[in-house]
Structure formats: C-alpha cells, structure tokens
Design goal:
With 293 residues, the chain is α/β, with parallel strands linked by helices. Helices cover 45% and strands 21% of the residues. The protein has a single domain, classed as von Willebrand factor, type A domain (Rossmann fold). A hairpin with a 4-residue loop joins strand 9 and strand 10.
C-alpha cells in the first residue's frame, strides 16, 4: 500500500507542478512621458516590448502564452485630456493589443508636453484598463522628469494602495542614479536590493544597491513606489548616455529582469489553481483507497 501511495502522490505532484508549470498570462501597460526630451525613449519602446514578448514566449515553451500590451501617454500639451493621462489606442481601436500592435501605437507618441504628473497617469491606467484576474499585472513608467503634482490630489500612499489592490508590479525608468554596496555604479536595482551593473555584453548583479541621486522628487515619488510594489527602478540617463552598444545591453538587461519578475509573479497567480488540482488528485486517491477496504 505504501508503494502505491507514494506513486499516486508523485503522479499528482507531477501533474500539478510540471504540466501547469510555465503558462504566461500577463497584462503590461507602459505609461510614458510625452515631453520634449523623450523622443529617444519613444523610439526604443516598440523594440523593447517585442524583445520582452519574445523572451516571455520562450519562457512559456509549449504552455499557454497570452500577453496583452497597453500604452498610456501623458504630459502632451495637445492630448485628448490636455497634459493628463490618455490611452494610445491600438490599430484595432482597442486599449490592449499584441506586441506588434503596441509597436505601431508607440509611433503616435508625441514630444510636445512640459507638465508631467506621473501619479495621475498611473491612476488613469489603473482606472481605465481592465486587468485580468488570471494575469500577472505590470506597469512601466518611463520619464526623465520628477512629478509635477497638478492633476491629482493623490499622494504616494494613495497610489501605492491602488497598485497593491490590483496586484500590479511597477517598474520605472526615471532620472535616478544607483550604487552597489561595494561602491560600483549600477544602472538599476530591484526590490530585494540587487543592483544591475552593465558590462560589455551582459550584466553583473551586486548586493545592497540603493538610489544615490534623483531628479527633484524622483526617488520618493517614483523609485520608492516601484520598489514598494516589488518592482525595479532604472536610470534613464544611463540608458541615454552610454552609447548605442551600452543601450543595447541595457535594454536586454531590463528585459531579462522584467521577464524573470513576470515569471515569478505568474507562479503566485497560478498557486491557488495548482493547489486545487493537487488537492483533488490527493482526495481522489484516498477516496479510491478507502473504497477498496
């Protein structure tokens, strides 16, 4: 009997943790500043999302792969909501689209703004996009300016509570600098204190990283907010000023860290269903065992 029991448990465990181990169902919104200095980042967005999409597809393997991408602009003087957050619709007229549809939509971003309230834009994204319960949820905020608090009365705690209510992880590319515990400069850091040091063709991971400088209120408003959600924070000046080769490795590093984060979050989303399947398998085994007695 013991051998049968161990075998049944092994089968149930295999069913739960192997067959259902790597689906990728994710909703990702990029919230991007449309002020005059952001053209370089606008040009980068489509390729970055396509690269991330390919990495997630590889991670899913033969399992479910169902990503959706959304795009929100803010700070545009001539936008539909003035300089407030607004949707950049996909070609289909929908809020969500594929990586290729996102690439097309990103080409409609403009650089005509000058007043950027990132908190209002984040709230617009959360309030106007329907996130799926089964999906990992991720927002990327990209700006080189600190917050101009003109369009919402919400403060740090208000926005954090709204992000947490939807289980959204925030990653930011902002005007900040970072340093490892060993004194090396880092291009970004995550919520666990890992710093990411760009090398010639890859990156090193260091410990005890922290933000050392931020443009205006960037650290308390954006860096700390991202880290509080379990996300990451990156330096836009590093991305801009390192040259084309550096920017390419930076982009790959950003994508790699984001992909790992989404995979880890997907496990958390899947856990209730996985546990239920495992429990049903065990219950069925014991029901059959007792029925034979």
């Amino acid at each position: 009997m013991k051998k049968i029991k161990i075998s049944a448990l092994a089968i149930a465990t295999s069913l739960s943790f192997s067959s259902f181990a790597s689906p990728i169902v994710t909703d990702i919104i990029t919230v991007v500043d449309e002020s005059g200095s952001m053209s370089n980042e606008h040009s980068w967005l489509g390729g970055m999302i396509s690269q991330l999409d390919n990495e997630l597809l590889r991670a899913a393997g033969n399992d479910i792969f169902d990503p959706r991408y959304g795009l929100v602009g803010y700070g545009d003087s001539y936008g539909p909501n003035g300089q407030m957050g607004h949707a950049q619709y996909m070609e289909s007229g929908e809020l969500w689209g594929s990586a290729s549809e996102f690439d097309i939509a990103s080409k409609d971003l403009v650089t005509s703004g000058g007043t950027e309230d990132g908190y209002e834009a984040l709230e617009f994204a959360i309030d106007n996009y329907d996130f799926r319960n089964s999906a990992t949820k991720n927002i990327m905020l990209i700006t080189d300016e600190d917050r101009d608090p003109f369009f919402t009365t919400s403060e740090y705690q208000d926005v954090l509570e709204k992000l947490n209510a939807y289980d959204i992880t925030l990653n930011v590319l902002v005007g900040a600098s970072y340093q490892c515990g060993d004194g090396r400069s880092a291009s970004g850091m995550d919520a666990t204190g890992n710093g990411y040091v760009i090398t010639t063709d890859s990156y090193d991971v260091c410990e005890n990283a922290h933000a050392t400088y931020g443009n205006g209120s960037t650290i308390p408003d954006y860096v700390n907010l991202a880290l509080a959600t379990g996300g990451s924070s990156w330096g836009v000046d590093d991305f801009r000023n390192g040259g084309a080769a550096f920017a390419s490795v930076f982009s790959s590093t950003f994508v790699d860290v984001t992909r790992e984060q989404i995979e880890e979050n997907q496990v958390s989303v899947n856990e209730p269903g996985t546990l239920a399947i495992f429990s049903l398998a065990i219950a069925g085994f014991f029901a059959r065992s007792f029925s034979r007695k």
